[in-house]
Design goal:
It is globular and about 45 Å long. By secondary structure, the protein is of the alpha/beta class. Helix 3 packs antiparallel against helix 4 and helix 3 packs parallel to helix 5. It has one domain: 3-Layer(aba) Sandwich (Rossmann fold), CATH 3.40.50. 53% of the residues lie in helices and 13% in strands. The protein is built from 8 helices and 5 strands, in the order βαβααβααβααβα. Bound molecules: adenosine-5'-triphosphate and ligand LXEULUCI. The site of adenosine-5'-triphosphate (ATP) has 13 residues, from helix 1 and helix 8. It comes from Sulfurovum indicum. One of its GO terms (biological process) is dUDP biosynthetic process. GO terms for molecular function: ATP binding; dTMP kinase activity.
């Protein structure tokens, strides 16, 4: 089963994945961008926000996604694979960047994923107060530096995209306690 943990920066995805790895070491965990050796190189470029063209940025995220699917997801299709981010981040951030059409982004991501969208998506939903608090505790990468309002726009696009694509999902209140979220995820995944 291919599962995405999705949400904007600092919403708590990695924290939950680390907890799951401890309680369920059989689960294969990965991430985008950077889940493959090619992806690590792409991540360097992408997180520096050094590309002038938003289309070039999108295509590099899509290349990372295609390589990640081929190298990590497809070979493990009979295991539980949980990815920290995936194509919903791809659509959400690109829509917030402007100049892109939802249906076009869906088609491009379907191509990158060889037609295999994730089986489940868990979207962590945060708010401005929590976003401010948590981003103040870290150094921000190039994309995060686009601002908190931009990130909250991304979050709205992520939510709408999941609903439009009708993919089985769980919306998590990212402001709840770490343990409470962990229990909700265990129940949802039936593990
Ligand atoms: N439920 C929670 N309650 C309080 N703090 C939390 C919670 N979940 C995560 N945190 C804290 O918030 C910060 C960001 O968490 P985390 O790195 O898991 O987010 P993320 O979604 O993976 O972020 P990014 O996408 O930016 O990597 C960390 O300092 C973490 O300890
Ligand atoms: C997969 C993907 C990611 N992004 C953005 C979202 C974040 O700002 C960074 C990744 O940072 P993280 O610390 O690894 O979460 O990249 C994006 O804009 N488009 C995508 O497809």
């Amino acid at each position: 089963m291919y599962i995405l943990f999705e949400g904007i920066d600092t919403c708590g995805k990695s924290t939950q994945i680390e907890l799951l790895k401890k309680t369920h070491p059989e689960i294969i965990t990965t991430h985008e961008p950077g889940g493959t050796s090619f992806g690590k190189k792409a991540r360097e470029i992408l997180l520096n926000d050094s590309l002038r063209s938003k289309r070039a940025e999108l295509l590099l995220f899509l290349a990372d996604r295609a390589e990640h699917y081929e190298e990590i997801v497809e070979p493990n299709r009979y295991s539980m694979v949980i990815s920290d981010r995936g194509f919903i981040s791809g659509i959400g951030y690109a829509l917030a960047n402007g100049d892109f059409d939802f249906d076009e982004l869906v088609a491009l991501n379907r191509f990158a994923l060889k037609g295999h969208f994730p089986d489940r998506i868990i979207l962590f939903i945060t708010n401005m107060e929590t976003l401010q608090e948590r981003t103040s505790q870290k150094s921000l990468d190039g994309i995060e530096l686009r601002g908190l309002e931009y990130l909250l726009q991304v979050q709205e696009h992520m939510k709408e995209s999941i609903l439009r694509l009708d993919i089985p999902h769980l919306f998590i209140d990212a402001t709840e306690s770490i343990e409470s979220i962990h229990q909700s995820i265990l129940t949802y995944l039936k593990v």
